[in-house]
């Protein structure tokens, strides 16, 4: 038997005031926590019937991930309808203990009973608990009335109940008018609002983490009076932490905590008597000194005070001790507000979702400029693509060294010889008439060396050189056919030399020059009365089946960019929103009210859906009506794929948010995903242009199949059943579910730390 149990046994066996059966039952109760309620049904020596326990913690330890033990085999018992003050120095583990009780943390080992139940089926987290965290944990952009509305709705209150509670707590806590923004309140006022919304729904258990810090002494007095009132009349159980030791006199029991253990747990009067002092402050100091001097584990005897019934005398003594503060008033009971009891026992999921969605809409509307940016930045990005990408080249500087002309002649001067005639002079001018603005800015050079220097200096992209006897040699070549002398080939060639560092410009230039040459030969044949078909290659491209001839790259780029942007932006917005809620503590607070992680995500998703719909419609309207893009295929299917891609981004944002603790981390992670995604998903460069292994990798990226799918619909008009189309839907939907489930699982694990 452990020393712990031995001392308990000794104490119980030596308690003459109890019958043998009661002693046995108490011992069982002590060793088997499941009997905690029976424990208090036993009369003590004074004949006082014990109260059932609201919170019982046994042998609790807590070690955070960094390996530091915070709670050390802690035992705690809080009776129903009492105030329990938890006192202790900073960092001793009070908040950790409270977090584990309300369900946003978990003991590493140990047992917890709430209202006699071991699991979390007693409405905690949920409507049965009111939690005021140490930080304000309020939405700064809310007005005070919106704050009441949100937390009231989360806890299943209707509009009328919320209104009554707001009026009551505004008077009790001297709050400003309801239409004042939380962000503009002082720290003390924020704390009061936070206090009010923790208890507005009249929970059975109130957990208040330092509610009176920075609060005016008069208001502090009102708070304590009200808490005493609540425990007395509403049977509310209150656990409160405070650094103002003396205000704990009004509580029924005080737990003195040090280094993760309770040094003592007793009524204030008993503590004063046991430590032979007149102030709680002195009693706490004495206990801490003793503990420090002996540098031994906290005495186990404090456990036994669990069984020492707080007598009526103790309670009255506690309540009638003077309150801290100048007024020196007694803890008398203020009149109770006539607030009807909760209609529903537990706020159902629908009600919570309604509260969460309303909250998100309030917050979005509060920051309209940000909302407009969120909606229109992706739209602007697509429109930028439309106006800037894939257009034909223009104003490309091209050098010309035309050796058919001498210093004193120009093509314009000789136009009568080549323009519209079948003459064989100055055919180079006929060719050059197809090298025109706005595609080209022609720069004439006298020699090849000068032209080369021009390229090297970056003045021109390349140059065309035309031999001296080009016209004659070209004629020979044209009429000579296969019998032409080999030297004529070189002498009749128009030669290009280019800066090919920009592949896209070089390829476009070459293609344009080929076209120019073909048109020149066609002109020549026409002017000589020949059939222009002779200018065609024997390799011919007829009218395309999909798309238009010489379609610009936009036909390829726009659909995939659409998917890329509407996937990417929600990652950032959803991820940042989520991290922000985590950081501000509002998420944790909502979770204590019984909100589930999936409900939070679902509510975010509804708002993102609204944004996604507006965004997608705007993009399509602009692309079709303003920029005249030709979109074929089912618009509704494309719209649907747009929305699933948006959701895929939203859920990826949740997943990022689940991992991150700072907004900047979300942004950096999103960027890390963005570039591989746009580069490998075929958004800029087709998969056909990638090595085989990269193509395989690309198939597994979130946007690859969706890009192919939307392109197939918007450019080719293919239906859902086409093998290029439905995989896009399947992959976005699959990723959406995967991200969502992963985000919920990771968040749930992280919140139950
Ligand atoms: N998530 C966490 N991960 C690691 N360590 C933590 C975490 N939360 C708290 N701690 C550590 O646990 C210890 C107890 O912290 P806790 O907030 O419970 O103390 P406290 O008694 O409430 O202090 P205070 O009165 O200042 O609020 C501290 O040393 C703190 O640094």
The share of residues in helices is 40-55%
Q: What is the CATH class name of the largest domain?
A: Alpha Beta
CATH architecture of the largest domain: 3-Layer(aba) Sandwich
Q: Largest sheet, if any?
A: 6 strands, mixed
Structural class by secondary-structure content: alpha/beta
Strand content: 5-15%
Strand tally? 13
How many helical stretches? 28
Distance between the termini: 32 Å
Radius of gyration: 40 Å
Bound molecules: adenosine-5'-triphosphate
CATH superfamily name of the largest domain? P-loop containing nucleotide triphosphate hydrolases
The overall pLDDT, averaged over residues, is 81
How many domain units? 3
Regions with little confidence, pLDDT below 50 for 5+ residues: 1-11, 30-49, 296-347
The fold-level CATH name of the largest domain is: Rossmann fold
Categorize the overall geometry.
elongated
Strand arrangement in the largest pleated sheet: 5-6-7-3-8-9
Domain ABC transmembrane type-2: 502-750
Keywords: ATP-binding, Membrane, Nucleotide-binding, Transmembrane, Transmembrane helix
Membrane topology: Multi-pass membrane protein
Protein name: ABC transporter G family member 23
